[in-house]
Every structure is written in C-alpha cells, then in structure tokens.
Design a protein that fits this description.
With about 475 residues, the chain is mainly α. The chain folds into 3 domains: about 140 residues, no CATH class; about 180 residues, no CATH class; about 120 residues, no CATH class. Strands 1-2 form a two-stranded parallel ribbon. Helix 8 crosses helix 9 and helix 12 crosses helix 13. The longest helix has 25 residues. The protein starts with a helix and ends in a 43-residue tail after the last strand.
Length: about 475
C-alpha cells in the first residue's frame, strides 16, 4: 500500500516514524476533555450501538489511511503552498471518521503539520485508490460496492432509527410474491435509492413556523466598525458557497425539498459570524451544514479567506457541565443576535429553543450506509423467515455491524424462498449473519452458496437461471452483463 509500505528500509523506517507521530499526537482540545474524539466517533459512526471491536476496526482503518497517506506524500509530493491532496481513497465510514477529525479544525491542522509539514486536503479522487486498505476492516469487501456504499451514507438520529428500520424492513418484505423475494442485481441501486426516499419522507418533515418576534434594540455582539449591510454580506456569502453543498446536505441528511432552507439558514449564520465580536453557537441543524462545508477543505478554506480574510475554526464541544452551560448561553445569545441582525425570528424546526437544542434526544445520531442496511435486511429475511423478528432494530444492527464486506449480489439475482429451510455453516447460528471468506448460509433445500454453476453466494433455491437451464445455476449465461460498478 504505497511506497512506504513495501519500499526500502529507509521508507519503512519513515513509515514507522510517522506511525509514532500519529500515535503520540494528543487530539484533545484540552487536557481535561470529558468527551474525546474517539467517544464522539463512536456516537456519530454507530449511534453508540456498535460493539467495541467494530469501533476499534474503524479507528484502525482511519489510522492506516492517515499514516499511508502521509507516507506517500512525504516521499512523492511537493507542495508550494503547504497543502496536499490525500493520495488514497478512504473506505466508507473511514471517510466519515476523517471528516470528523477535520471538524476539530485546529487539532487537525496540527496533526497534518506534524505528519507532512502542511495540510492534507480531502478531495474525492476520480478513481478508487488504496482499496486494499478496505479489506483490513471488511475482508470480503467488493470494490463494486463502493459507489453505492459511499454515495448513500446518511445521517439518522437515534430517536428515528427504530421507526426507519421497521419501515425499511417492511418495504423489502413487501417484495415477497408467492413465497419468494427476488432481488435482481440491476435493481439494487433502485432499492437503495428507495430507502433514501423513505428516509427523506420521514426526516424532511420540518417545522418552519416561527415564534413571536421581539426585536432587540441593540446587541453586544454587533461590530459597529463594519460598514457593509447584513444584506450585502448575506448575498456575498450565498454566492460564494460551493454549488455542490446543497446536493450533499440533501443526500447526507435526507432533507428532500427542505435543503435550500437549510442553506439559507447556514448563510445567515455565517453572516452573523461576519458581524459578531463574540463566539456564536449554531443550532444542530445549521451545524450539520457547516460540517459538510468544512469537509470540502479546499472550498471551505477559499471561502473563509474570501469572506473573512482568515480561516474560521470549528471547535466541537468537549463535554462536562461547564462546557454545556457555556454553549447554552452562547446559543441563546446567537438567537437574539439573529433577531437583531435580520429583524426576523428563525424557523423553530431549524433553530429550536435552547432546551430542545441541547436535549440529547435531538442531537444524538449516526451516519449509516443505506446499502449496508439493505444488505442487512436481506440477510435478516434470509435467516429469520418464518416470523417477524421481535426486535427488528437489534437484528438489523447486529447484521450491519458484523458485515464482512460480502457482495451477495454478484449473480444475476438474489432470491429468498420464505418456505425453504436455511442451513448454516457448522459452528454458526442465526446470530452469525456473515462469515469472512465464505458464506454463513451453505444450504437451502439442497442448493445454496457454494453450489450451482458459479458457486459463491448466489441464488440458493429452485430457480431456472438463463444460460444453462440448470436449477440453481448462477454463474453462466448473461450474468456478467450486470455490474454494480455501473451503478
């Protein structure tokens, strides 16, 4: 993986030195931080539902990505301005952990300076590079899954997760016809997009009503030395935002037709930043747009220097009562400054009252891959056929967090026979949804993974596939006409 991993002893030693620098770097904002980067990652990459070994693997993958990227840059790249583009593609979820690190803007700059003497920018590469690193976490990872896996990585609040997973489960169960659930490979993209549409229907139902307006006569935050009007700065900021920002937040946060309203409110917040002499605290909803903007590192840096003449840092909360009380006060002051500057009250669904803003039920959530949720629902249906699981959320998440990267849609179609008997590999039970290097399901009525023309994890029931006319044949004929990479 890169020149450092397989090169000369000098390069191997350099990699070891970079690894030590990374491991010794203190990513805490303050020595007394009660809510650390790792704890935040566990909450925002798994909703705090994942077992510890899952998060250990995610952190290990992030660590390898950063060290390998730094090593490649140190030996191959030259930069006139001190900014480098990461040479490898991070795996889905690893990318989200990288994004989370970028949000600790001062600490991330310090880390990059320590590793490469400059800044490592996050820029999507045209082609996936370094996918071998994916397999260190998901040993069966199929590169053909990457596009869907990364595209439909969405934010779901913990309070909404159970309802969403039940709706998603029912939508796929409703595909059943004559005791069969047939999933053609060429429709996988459509089914995953359908899950996104379901999420958007749920999450874009936002309260846009406003409270009664009382305009403050003055505000201590206002910088009277600024000559431009709020309207002028708002317009300048709005046209300076990356064009792709609205599409990104619409997809990542399932905002449907509300995404432009979120952009407008984010623009207002950044306008307040321009006029304020004091620290401001955004709502959770506005903060999500800010997060997305910051992870477009080149665009965000350019934006900051064009608008403010300096970089606008983002500092996550560090936990503890003192930190909570401070941000509670800052948030109330921000709302009052909003009213003063714009002579308007903000929509309650985007700028809730402070008691709702800081209620954990309203901000604790996680990023989930809708492709993996789809795969997990299919596997749960395959394992538990006769009854509806008592706790659908637990079953799906157990499957989700134990996924080995297996692509069960390599063949022309994947079929579940609700009436068939599912036999598992020796030593496994129905809690073992995945088996690294093979398939946990080895037999269904005499067929299954590892049998038929193509072998592998294909259809395992009596279904006549095109190409050879045999029962359970999944490796012949026109199967190769369909590739997930074409999605």
């Amino acid at each position: 993986m890169g020149s450092c991993a397989s090169g000369s002893k000098i390069k191997q030693q350099a990699r070891a030195d970079l690894a030590r620098k990374f491991d010794n770097f203190d990513f805490r904002i303050n020595p007394t931080d009660k809510f650390t980067f790792i704890e935040r990652a566990k909450r925002e990459l798994s909703g705090s539902y994942a077992p510890d070994d899952f998060m250990s693997k995610i952190y290990s993958g992030y660590r390898e990505f950063m060290i390998n990227s730094a090593c490649e840059l140190v030996f191959k790249e030259k930069s006139k301005d001190g900014n480098f583009i990461a040479p490898f593609t991070p795996a889905p979820l690893i990318d989200e952990m990288w994004c989370l690190a970028i949000l600790y803007s001062k600490k991330y700059r310090e880390l990059c300076k320590c590793l490469v003497g400059g800044f490592i920018d996050r820029v999507p590469l045209k082609n996936v590079n370094g996918s071998r690193m994916f397999k260190q976490i998901w040993p069966d990872y199929d590169d053909n899954l990457y596009k869907l896996d990364s595209k439909y990585m969405v934010w779901i609040y913990n309070k909404d997760l159970c309802e969403f997973l039940n709706i998603a489960y029912d939508s796929i169960k409703n595909l059943e016809n004559s005791n069969l659930i047939v999933v053609p490979k060429k429709k996988v993209k459509l089914y995953v997009k359908t899950l996104h549409d379901l999420a958007s229907d749920m999450f874009s139902n936002i309260n846009l009503s406003k409270s009664e307006l009382t305009i403050p006569e003055s505000h201590k935050n206002f910088n009277h030395e600024i000559k431009e009007s709020p309207c002028e700065i708002y317009d300048k900021i709005f046209i300076s935002l990356p064009k792709k920002l609205i599409q990104l937040i619409q997809r990542k946060y399932c905002l449907g037709n509300k995404s432009r309203i979120f952009i407008n409110e984010y623009t207002r917040f950044m306008t307040m930043v321009y006029f304020s002499k004091q620290v401001l605290t955004p709502s959770e909803e506005v903060d999500q747009v800010w997060h997305t903007h910051q992870t477009l590192t080149i665009e965000y840096r350019k934006f900051c220097f064009e608008i403010y003449g300096k970089f606008i840092d983002h500092t996550p909360t560090v936990g503890g009562q003192a930190d909570a009380s401070k941000h509670y006060i800052f948030y109330n002051e921000t709302i009052e400054f909003y009213k003063y500057l714009f002579k308007d009250t903000p929509p309650l669904g985007i700028w809730p009252q402070a008691c709702d803003r800081f209620n954990p039920i309203n901000f604790i959530g996680s990023f989930y891959s809708l492709l993996r949720i789809f795969l997990s629902i299919i596997r749960v249906l395959d394992m538990i056929k006769d009854v509806r699981p008592v706790d659908i959320q637990s079953e799906i998440l157990s499957c989700y967090f134990s996924w080995t990267g297996k692509n069960i849609f390599k063949k022309k179609r994947y079929v579940i026979n609700i009436k068939s008997y599912t036999k598992l590999r020796d030593g496994l039970d129905k809690s073992n949804y995945w088996y690294a290097g093979g398939c946990s399901i080895i037999n269904r009525n005499g067929s299954g993974c590892g049998t038929g023309c193509g072998g592998g994890c294909g259809i395992g029931i009596e279904f006549e596939a095109s190409g050879c006319g045999g029962i359970g044949c999944t490796g012949c004929g026109n199967d190769d006409d369909y590739h997930l990479s074409s999605f």
